[in-house]
Amino acid sequence: MDEHGDRIDVALIDDQQLVRAGFRMVIDSQPDLSVVVEASDGRQALTELAARRVDVVLMDVQMPRMDGIETTRLLLAAENAPKVVVLTTFDNDEYVISAIRAGASGFLLKDVPPEQLLDGIRTVHRGDAVIEARATRRLLQHVGPLLEDSMDRAQLPEELTPREVEVLEAMAYGLSNTEIAARLHISETTVKTHVGRVLSKTQSRDRVQAVVFAFQVGLVRRSDLLGTED
């Protein structure tokens, strides 16, 4: 947790003041969440975030002076960087791919319902999941072709155990820890242990990066995801 105990400090980076105001109202209504930084473009964001550490950054993509992709890349290059959640729409596939490459830890649609916004922030901050599993699944179905076309192939690390490969594959299909536990007939605690080892051995920052890795090694393909919306 951060220096304020259980409170999650959030930064809002978006060039639309009304968008920031709406998100702030929802976030500040929660006792465990607080918006402590706002910025209207990437350069201002980097300046503000150099002076004030936060836990989670909600980052718009298309902004003047410096866009959200470059801002995310520069922000995550620093030590003790916050988690970055990119605000996106499904009609901006290329930005989603660029955000993945820049190291974003999650994605939210700009018109996301308030409860999903709050859950997304808490989920990314916990680090045990990136975003609600079905949203991850839909995202991968949508941008899968671009992932397959734009990523260099990689090899599975030899140190990954067969069980860890199963867990990685399940993560790539958007399964939650609870769903993985049920599928593999193991406890959620054991799943969390396997997930941690998968992230470490694949050198993935979080589950989004692990899913990208699963595409890179050919463990899962976009065609495999078709028809798995629910």
TrEMBL record:
UniProt keyword Transcription present: yes
Sorted UniProt keywords: DNA-binding, Phosphoprotein, Transcription, Transcription regulation
Family matches, as InterPro entries: CheY-like_superfamily, NreC/VraR/RcsB-like_REC, Sig_transdc_resp-reg_C-effctor, Sig_transdc_resp-reg_receiver, Tscrpt_reg_LuxR_C, WalR-like
Domain Response regulatory, chain residue ranges per copy: 9-125
Entries under CDD domains matching the protein: LuxR_C_like, REC_NarL-like
Keyword Transcription regulation belongs to the record: yes
Name of the protein described by the UniProt record: Response regulator transcription factor
Lineage: Bacteria, Bacillati, Actinomycetota, Actinomycetes, Mycobacteriales
